[in-house]
Amino acid sequence: MNLASGSLLSGAYILALLSTAVVGLPTRTVTWQEYSLLILSVIGIGIICAIAFPRIWRTGPRPRLWLTASLIAVIALLYVQLRLPQPESNDISQFVSSSAQGQVVTIQGNVETVPRLTRSQKGQFWLEATQLTELESNENRGTTTRGVTGKLYVTVPLLQSTGLFPGQTISVTGVLYKPKPAANPGGFDFATYLTKEGAFAGLSGRQVSFPDENQESTWGWWMLRQRIIHAQVRQLGSPTGLLLSSIVLGRKAVDLPYDIRDLFIQTGFAHVLAASGFHVSLILGSV
């Protein structure tokens, strides 16, 4: 295979990946019917190129190579569709209310992460949903409970998230919502972020309750991480201890004040707060 052939095949693969933006991936759920039209379009373009280009560009790639390039493009499209997380039929995102105000629901599930402080001073954590309870119509004030699946991005008032731990079963009352894509080019795309995390909806929580009041935390690596953070804060104080914990464990593991994070970003040293083996070895070597 010469350089021109390799460039054509590689370009077909890359262009096929980029073409998924035409149908709205990865910020929206695309049906197989829509995706099939994209695949048929790619095949059609490959056939047209195989017929037309050899007549115009006589020293260029042969028809067989153009057809091979279209086949590689189709494989790239199928690869994207198979690897991209898709909501199941009973995923919690399927029950988001279409009304502007949103319907108040109660979601029961298992906490996946230790709550973290958001920029808006709320507690945020991931919840693996297992049960949805919603009110019926105004005429009948009963409730409907159904089993659900899926991962939720949950935010609650800070005091409501205090003391939550991974593996704990809780119920959160609030309003479900679907994330919106970035409003400005290059801005933070919340919908894409959730999709990468395997989630398709968020929950703006108001109240956290506990079906089992006697739950005890089970051992996990998160407990060791919390002990390290507490020890460093106890010895160095705040925010110095939190800053050291961010360097050792990564900023995602520590509620480092946002004013300090912003200073590191503005000065171009945000990478210092990303935990890596190199950083840990420097710290251990210094100790």
From TrEMBL:
Pfam families: Competence, DUF4131. It is a multi-pass membrane protein. Keywords: Cell membrane, Membrane, Transmembrane, Transmembrane helix. It comes from the Bacteria. One of its GO terms (cellular component) is plasma membrane. Residues 32-209 form the DUF4131 domain. It is found in: Cell membrane. InterPro entries: ComEC_N, Competence_DNA_uptake, DUF4131. Residues 249-285 form the ComEC/Rec2-related protein domain. PANTHER family: DNA INTERNALIZATION/COMPETENCE PROTEIN COMEC/REC2, RECOMBINATION PROTEIN 2. This is DUF4131 domain-containing protein.
